[in-house]
Write a structure and sequence with these properties.
- The structure is a single chain.
- The chain starts with a helix and ends in a 5-residue tail after the last strand.
- The protein is 22% helix and 40% strand.
- It is of the alpha+beta class.
Length: 138
Amino acid sequence: MTRETILTALADLLRLIPFVPVLRGEVLPERVPTSGLIILRDGDPGDPAVTLSPLLYHFQHRAELEVIVQGVARDAGFATLCGQIGAVISGDHTLGGLCDWVEAEAPRPVDLPVEGAASLKAAVITIVLHYTTTGPLA
């Protein structure tokens, strides 16, 4: 198991949300779908706790989701999308056994004006991934 395997599994889990594209490390596109958009960023794996015999590295990796909704109903759409993210994570808190635990932190939404278009409602949602690897670079 590697960090990449876990982030890919997280992206795949988020893709269970219908009609909402999930991008991985992409820049914000010019158009945001009416259903919203999620961009998964690798985030910060942090400093691992280390145990010996066997040598294992225990991470609390903080991945980030950029959640963006645009349009006149962006408040309701944003709330719905956040609820859907919480529901898919609650449905699989271990990413199929790849992690010890996965949990989302509360978003801090902001409204962003866009010249000549409907405003955006966006937030970064931190996803804390608790997992163990056999090496610090795994």
